């Protein structure tokens, strides 16, 4: 149907620009298009954000209270949204209120203090203020705001700029106070609410649909949410002079009797965006294999550096018989034909004089080769730049040669198959393979000896053992879904699956304090090509494949109230809700 008034043509152009002009940090949702029958200017817009501590996704979905399911009929929602890691209350509330993940804001414990990482005690850690603070310098500083919750440290430490705050002793009092404000003549433009009873019930009874105490708390939450929505609908201006976006999110999930461990169940939460005009749409990460493609070079390089506290585990030391032996495995995916690009290294400044190791490609031939010290091992029997996943392994090990000499050797494998075992260049006896270089996935800053081109490449299942695995053990790891279950897990010194799907790091499952830290303009994207070690999973029927994340909440809040977000704020997330404007611009 044609638009009746020419005055709206500029607004249409604005909408189109808005649909395609946003900057992406995380995988965005696919655009959704409808015919626009009419267009109206938005009324007074308000946002209600409800953060629920201990809102564990799996048991809540199993309990499925009727009043909670009813909300979904007018919602964009996900049952497998990601909060943050670690999953303690201070970290996730800082993430929720700042719009950035903990790898940026560095609040990792209940003190709300920023944690210094690395060895530089003089480093300046960037501060990320709350979105209430950002509003003060925004394009709409006149917007009013308030907080009603249970924990006074949230407003003292995370949102000190909030204009109006009320701390109460129970979820019942929080709900009653919120409903009273909603029914009053005036309520803030942005209201943040905290509920905590679910966390307490989970700790006491267990985060399970089979725990009666937790089930009762989930059902009570559903009753409270329904009463809050009914109160909004009773406002005289509801969907007339004002338009509401209600965001309901778990701040952490839970497993057994705990919610602070950072495991997948402890950080997987429901996330619901409700508006009376929304059409129901579920989003799910099921079937997605999120990964970061490392690429570019120099100042624009997208790469990952191992935390300095862990770099020494890749110093292989003096190569003498009887010293520590090592096994290093990594899976890679690339189609690059670049000339001798280094993509995994602890060496430099060139391929010719390295004291550590450097793994590189051979260009169009697509073979993986490596330098260990100044010994170059070039033979490789299988092409790996074919756009499929391949498992590469090298082992530093001892043996005695035919003359009885005790030697230190290197053997290599592609997809579990050993490469050219008779090559004498494998002898590294007497070399010193220790240096002070960074351990880098992606482009390395070599000054000569090749490595002049970047290589688009993806990593997964990077691992290091402080023992030499046998040929059979190497072959058995190729499709092993979780190396923390390896028979020699006691020798596993580092394991980075590289499929986290959020944050600016590849987490180390052996020692969380030793991640690979991502840098550059990286994007977590769905690769679609799956590993044999990756649990097979089909997309959830009827759901759009994407990963909802907590920083999206602030982006949607600012979008809804019309606040421009400058790049200088540095907040994460995407404004995906704008893809559905035809549902609520009436």
Protein traits:
586 residues, alpha+beta, 14 helices, 23% strand, elongated, disordered N terminus
Q: Which assembly state applies to the chains in this document? A: single chain
Strand content: 15-25%
The main sheet comes to: 9 strands, mixed
Number of strands: 25
Q: Strand order of the main beta sheet, please?
A: 4-3-5-1-6-7-2-8-25
Q: Cα-atom Rg, whole angstroms? A: 27 Å
Describe the structure.
The protein is of the alpha+beta class. It has 14 helices and 25 strands. The chain has a 9-stranded mixed beta sheet with strand order 4-3-5-1-6-7-2-8-25, sandwiched between helices. An 8-stranded antiparallel beta sheet has the order 15-14-13-12-19-10-23-22, with no helix packed on it. Helix 3 packs across helix 10, helix 8 packs parallel to helix 10 and helix 9 runs antiparallel to helix 10. The N terminus is likely disordered.
In short:
The chain has 14 helices and 25 strands. By secondary structure, it is an alpha+beta fold.
